[in-house]
Amino acid sequence: MELNRSTLKEAVEHGLVSDEQAERLWEFLQMRGMNTPAFRFTHILYYLGGLIAIGAMSLFMTLGWERFGGWGLFSIALVYAAAGLWLTEFLLKRLRQPIPAGITAVFVVALTPLAVYGLQLALGWWADGRVYRDYHAYIDWRWMFMELATLAAGAAMLWRYPLPFLVMPLAATLWYMSMDLTPFLFGAADATWELRRLVSLWFGLLIALLAFWVDVRSRHDKDYAFWLYLFGVVAFWGGLSTMNSDSELSKFLYLCINLLMIVVGATLARRVFAVFGGLGAAGYVGHLAHGVFKDSLIFPFVLTAIGLGVIYAGIVWQRHEKAITARLRNLLPPPLRELVARRH
């Protein structure tokens, strides 16, 4: 549940705490939450500024920068990275601001592909006209060297600065790697779209399992698994949803997987599973409405009954949630039981 000032006011009105206790508790919660990412105007400014700076060196890189040449790009990336490292140290050690420090640390990691590209360009690896801005737009197995270097730099930065936002470039790079891995393993000529979807599905599943392992192993308040879950689910669900199938049994299996994702999301308190699972389930219902039962008169009534039945199941669950949850948690292994309890 969300704890806000109105909730504390209600507690005062019910005589559970005094006005002074409520005020002191609110001040404590405010101070404790200052360094926790949340939807605050200050944090919005942090991330907006950080994403603009990161985007300037990655997504929004212009073709004009190619005039600097390979050694020029490599040198610029090193100078910017040194400045980012100094700023990270200053924000973290002197100002004790972990959120903007995490953003500047990510800025350093985001410069790694540019540095590797500049070095490769200087050595004549990109003589076919490929430019750096294509890194974020086109699939090419040669990006793998930049991705591996980014993973190494991100792991080193995460070891030096244990800040959750540093997992973001690692997760994004793993997602990029899932797309570039297919032509690397099977050759560009054999990398059909069906094969790319299959690699994306299994790679996304592996990233999601890695996120689950990080979730179970973590004993901190910091959420290191969020970005891994996000990119893992996107890769898995994207590969699953774009697969071609003329079989109604396969489509029903797709629905079951999406419903399972919703259950997993509710169990682990991870909205990303529930969101994409809900989209997949809605897509299957749309397929039934516009394909299988497009001329049926009774289908809308049946669908309405199913929807009301789901609502009733939610009411029953709410009434007996405590007892059911306790029984289910007792069946889980201790690490997973601890994780679920902490998330809820």
Low-confidence runs of at least 5 consecutive residues: none
Give the CA-CA distance, first to last residue: 9 Å
- The shape, in one word, is flat
Average pLDDT reading: 81
The tally of beta strands, per DSSP, is 0
Number of helical segments? Answer: 14
Helix content: over 70%
SS content category: mainly alpha
Compile the SSE list and pairings:
Elements: H1 5-13, H2 19-33, H3 41-56, H4 69-94, H5 98-110, H6 112-122, H7 144-160, H8 167-186, H9 193-217, H10 226-241, H11 248-268, H12 271-292, H13 299-330, H14 334-343
Helix pairs in contact: 1-2, 3-5, 4-5, 4-6, 5-7, 6-7, 7-8, 8-9, 8-10, 9-10, 10-12, 11-12
Describe the overall structure:
By secondary structure, this protein is mainly alpha-helical. The model has no long low-confidence stretch (mean pLDDT 81). The chain starts with a helix and ends with a helix. Helix 6 packs across helix 7 and helix 10 runs parallel beside helix 12. It has 14 helices and no strands. Among the domains are: 33 residues, no CATH class; 158 residues. It is flat.
Question: What are its keywords?
Answer:
single chain; 344 residues; mainly alpha; 14 helices
Short description:
By secondary structure, the chain is an all-alpha fold. It contains 14 helices and no strands. The termini are close together.
